Amino acid sequence: MIKFVIRWAINAAALYAAALIVPGIDFEGDWRGIVWLALIISLLNVLLRPLLKLLTLPLIILTLGLFTVVINTIVLMLTSSIGQIFGLGLTVNGFWPALLGSLVISIVSMVMSAIFRDELKGGKKHN
């Protein structure tokens, strides 16, 4: 359960960073909106991303894995669309902002996952 909460917080921070950094990604809500959007992107990553990877496996192999950036872009655009349905305040204005946003989200997630590596692996017991 703690792994899920940490991953959720990492996704929230990464989404917020993308909204701050990338022109064309706008967030006009409060912290609760980011928390709900992080849950949406987490669920899409768990449920939809593996299917998209399976369906696009030849493209992923052909591009040496770079097509996964496009998959991340699609997931971010879907998160924005779902968030707009629920009025959560995230707007992604097109493919290129979504692409840059997915790169920012990936970088922030990697850095924060490295920081919380022990907690995500189950934590080391210190005596």
Summarize this, please?
The protein is mainly α and 127 residues long. It has one domain.
Tell me what portion of residues adopts beta-strand conformation: under 5%
Oligomeric composition of the shown chains:
single chain
* Order of strands across the main sheet: 1-2
Radius of gyration: 15 Å
- Individual helix count: 7
Please state the average pLDDT score. Answer: 92
Structural class: mainly alpha
> Whole-Å distance between the termini?
23 Å
Q: Residue ranges: pLDDT <50 for 5 or more in a row? A: none
Summarize the structure in words.
By secondary structure, the chain is mainly alpha-helical. It has one domain (2-120). Helices cover 74% and strands 5% of the residues. The protein contains 7 helices and 2 strands, in the order αβααααβαα. It has helices at residues 2-21, 31-47, 49-55, 57-62, 67-85, 95-115, 117-120; strands at residues 25-27, 90-92. A two-stranded antiparallel sheet has the order 1-2. Helix 5 (67-85) crosses helix 6. The longest helix has 21 residues, at 95-115. The protein is globular, with a radius of gyration of 15 Å. The model has no long low-confidence stretch (mean pLDDT 92).
